[in-house]
Structures are given as C-alpha cells and as structure tokens.
Write a structure and sequence with these properties.
By secondary structure, the chain is an alpha+beta fold. It contains eight helices and eight strands; from the N terminus they run ααααααββββββαββα. The chain has three domains: 32-124; 135-189, SH3 type barrels (Roll), CATH 2.30.30; 195-277, 2-Layer Sandwich (Alpha-Beta Plaits), CATH 3.30.70.100.
C-alpha cells in the first residue's frame, strides 16, 4: 500500500513538472500557424480552381458555336468537359499534397517507402486509370460526342456529359445513367448518319393492298415539303410479316438523325387517316396463323 502511494505521488510530481516545463506558448503558436496555413491553402486552391475553370469556360465558349451539322460544336463541348475535369482533379491532387506537407507528413517518403500501401493504392487506382484511358480513346476515335443519341449496352439515350471517369447518358424518360468509361465497349451512335424511319401500316389478308401505293404516294407529296429533314423519296417496301406475326404494309422514310421518331409518327398518322378516308378498313392487329391450327 505504501509503495502504491509513493508511486502515485511520484507520477503526480512528474506530470506537474512536465506541464510546468511544457512550452505552451510555442505549442499554441504552432497549432495556430498550421491552422491558418491550412485555411490559406484551402482558399488559395479554391480560388485557383474557380478562376481556372472560368478561364477554360471562356476560352471554349467563343468556339462553341453550332456548326452546320452540329458535329463540331458537340466535339468541342466534349473536349471542354474533359478539360474542366482534368483541371479539377489536378488542382485537387496538389491541394491534398500541400495540406499533407503542411501537416508535416512526408508524402514523398511514404509513397517511395510504403511498398504495400503503394501496391494497394495502385490496385485501387486501376479502375480510375482504365476510365481515363478509355475516355481519351473515345475522344480521339470520335466514337460519340455530347449531344449524340447512343446505345451503350442496354442503355439508350442522349449523351449529356462526358468526364474522365464516367459518361452521362439521359434516357427518353429523363433518367440519368452514369456509365464508367471502362464499361463502354460497344457503342451504337445514332447521330452520325442518316436514319431510317420504318412506318408499318397494319393490314389484313383481305385488305386491298393494290390501292395503298397510290394513297401513300399522295400523302408523301403533301408531307414532303413540310418536312425538310426527309431525305429523298420514301421507299415502299410492300407487304411484310413482322416477327410478332403482324401483317403490315411497310414504308421506309430516310431522315436526318434525330428526326426519325417524330417523322415516323407523323407519316403513320397521315397514312392511316388517308386510308380510312378512302374507305379501306385496317385492323389494329393481325396475328399470323399458327402451325397446326
């Protein structure tokens, strides 16, 4: 018991001596100076980030004028987004490096000496590097640009943004899909060439199909001047059986990319109206005969 009391008294005296001899002024000065340095660096890199993005945005803005086909403008917008992303990540990297250096963390020594940490960091960054390389390849190969209508895997929509890591594709219903660039393998770009709008007019086996070409050509002559996006004369394919078993009279309208869906609805509506006015009855659905029945 006596030894315990003696040990406690000794520890108490040692603690009092340490606290009394500790240079509290130097300690608080160090804490305050480091804190102010961190705030200054944060504000500095924040200003650099804002000003740099503003300069890049202003630099690209003068060239972001719609071209005749819109391709040049889309490509410049894609390059602009990638440049802004690259600048943002560069500023972020140097900001973190400056903060660690201010706190006295030997960043260079850690990266060079911590083999396991470096290996783990390298493995973790593989996905980021793959996204970056794939994004640059997409840009150089001009696979698609911002504003293009594409199908990537099972996702269809319009490319609204392209970054170093992900590509944003907005679907017809407004859903924004974030696709990692490394997952982009097969791309169907529907904004580069002229597109085909397939108009299927449902018919029955008893429909007088020989009367349809004249009616369809009459409608085409009326609609063509109203829709300059139509290229050439619509082609009358004739009677076709769809995979669903429906019997249709098919017309192919070649149009500029982006307008094919609206033209498909417009021409189909006009065809149905003209055929109905001619006294021809059209079914809503005609299933194909099933073998054995």
């Amino acid at each position: 018991m006596t030894s315990l009391v003696t040990s406690t008294a000794t520890s108490s005296k040692w603690l009092q001596h340490y606290l009394s001899s500790f240079d509290w002024e130097k300690f608080w000065h160090l804490i305050t100076s480091r804190f102010l340095s961190l705030i200054f660096l944060t504000l500095l890199f924040f200003v650099i980030n804002v000003v740099g993005k503003w300069i890049l945005h202003r630099s690209f803005k003068r060239y972001l004028k719609p071209a005749a086909d819109g391709t040049g403008s889309n490509r410049l917008q894609t390059i602009s987004m990638l440049s802004l992303n690259l600048f943002h990540y560069t500023v972020l990297f140097f900001w973190i490096y400056a903060l660690l250096s201010t706190l006295g963390v030997p960043v260079g020594t850690l990266v060079a000496g911590a083999g396991i940490f470096s290996l783990a960091l390298g493995l973790g960054a593989q996905g980021f590097v793959s996204d970056l390389v794939t994004g640059i390849s997409i840009l150089l190969e001009q696979q698609f640009d911002v504003g293009d209508t594409v199908k990537i895997g099972t996702i269809e929509g319009t490319v609204t943004a392209m970054g170093l890591r992900t590509t944003q594709v907005t679907g017809a219903d407004g859903t924004i899909n974030f696709i990692p660039n490394r997952n982009i393998t097969i791309v169907a770009n529907r904004s580069r060439n002229d597109m085909r709008a397939t108009v299927n007019i449902p018919i029955a086996p008893t429909t007088p199909v020989e009367q349809l070409p004249a009616i369809i050509r009459s409608v085409n002559e009326r609609l063509m001047p109203e829709h300059p996006s139509v290229i050439g004369e619509p082609a009358l394919t004739g009677v076709v059986t769809l995979p669903t078993g429906e019997l249709v009279y098919q017309v192919i309208v070649v149009a500029k990319s982006g307008s094919q869906f609206a033209l498909q609805a417009t021409f189909l509506t006009a065809y149905l109206k003209a055929i109905r006015e001619a006294g021809i009855h059209l079914p809503t659905h005609t299933p194909a005969p099933v073998a054995g029945q």
